[in-house]
Amino acid sequence: MAYAGRTQKNSTLGSAIAILLLAAAIALICVYVALNPSIIEDLAHLALIVAAVIVAAAIIVYIAAAVLALPYYAAKGEGYQTDASYDLDDVEPVKEKDSQNKDS
After folding, report:
1. Confidence tier at 48 by pLDDT (50, 70, 90)
2. Could you tell me the residue range of the domain that residue 46 belongs to?
3. Is residue 49 part of a domain?
4. Residue 95: phi, psi to the nearest 5?
5. Rounded CA gap, 56 and 64, in Å?
6. Which residues contact 40 (CB under 8 A, 6 or more apart)?
7. What whole-number distance in Å separates Cα of residue 56 and Cα of residue 60?
8. In angstroms, rounded to a whole number, what is the distance separating the alpha carbons of residues 64 and 72?
9. How many domains does the chain have?
10. For residue 56, is it within any domain?
11. Is residue 43 part of a domain?
């Protein structure tokens, strides 16, 4: 209790009551669904509709992004160097290059 003089205790009664009420509400919802099984079917249909809307929106956004990217790709063009040589004969191993630098 090194900090006994500087500590402060706050009440957690409010959050405990909120957790208890939440547990009671979840229990009541489970009982209500058990007594009315048609709710599960309705919720399943609603979930399918929501999932279909989300998938359709994702497809529309993807197509829109692809269509909007075409003008940028066309205007960007292709860049390459004309004065550079990329022959494999010009490639030197790194080890030899380091040993040459040490000798000089």
Report:
1. very high
2. 37-75
3. yes
4. -60, -45
5. 12
6. 33
7. 6
8. 13
9. 1
10. yes
11. yes
On whether residue 63 sits in a domain, the answer given is yes
Would you place residue 4 in the very low, low, confident or very high pLDDT band (cuts 50, 70, 90)? low
Instruction: Kindly state the tokens that stand for 34.
Output: 């058990």
Which structure tokens are listed for 93?
């191993």
| Residue-by-residue DSSP string for the chain | -TTTTT------HHHHHHHHHHHHHHHHHHHHHHH-THHHHHHHHHHHHHHHHHHHHHHHHHHHHHHHHHHHHHHH-----SS----GGG---HHHHHHHHHH-
33 and 40 Cβ atoms separated by less than 8 Å: yes
Q: What is the CA radius of gyration of the chain?
A: 34
pLDDT of 60 over the 90 cut = yes
* pTM recorded for the entire structure: 0.47
CA-based nearest residue to 46, from 36, 54, 57: 54
pLDDT at 37: 85
Tokens of 21: 């009420």
Query: How far is Cα 24 from Cα 30, in angstroms, rounded to an integer?
Result: 10
Q: Which two tokens stand for residue 77?
A: 């063009």
